[in-house]
Amino acid sequence: MGRYVIRRTGAAIMTLIAASIVIFAFIHLIPGDPVYVMLGDGATPEQVAALRDRMGLDEPVVVQYLIWAGNALQGDLGQSIFFDTPVTQVIREGAETSILLALITMVWIVAFGVPVGILAAIRQGTVIDQGLSGLAMLLASVPTFWVGLYLILIFAAGLGWFPSSGYPSIFEEGGLANLRYLILPSLALAAPNAALILRLTRASMLDVAREDYVRTARAKGIAPSRVVLRHILRNALLAVVSAFGFTFAALISEAVVTETVFALPGVGRTVVQSILRRDYPVIQGVILIIVCMYLVINLAVDLSYRLLDPRVELE
Amino acid sequence: MLSVENLVVSVGRGPDIVRGVSFGIEPGEILGLVGESGSGKSMTSLALMGLLPPKLGISAGQVVLDGADITHLAPHQRVRRKCGKVAMIFQEPMTSLNPVLRIGEQIEEAVRVHDPDADAPARARELLDMVRIPDAAHQLSAYPHQLSGGMRQRVMIAIALACRPQVLIADEPTTALDVTVQRQVLGLIRELCDSLHMGVLFITHDLGVVAQLADRVAVMYAGKLVETSDVGPLFRAPLHPYTAGLMACLPDPESDDPALATIPGAAPRPGDIPDGCPFAPRCDRAAAPCRSGPVPLAHGAPGQSARCHFPLNERASA
Question: What is the pTM of this model?
Answer without folding.
Answer: 0.82
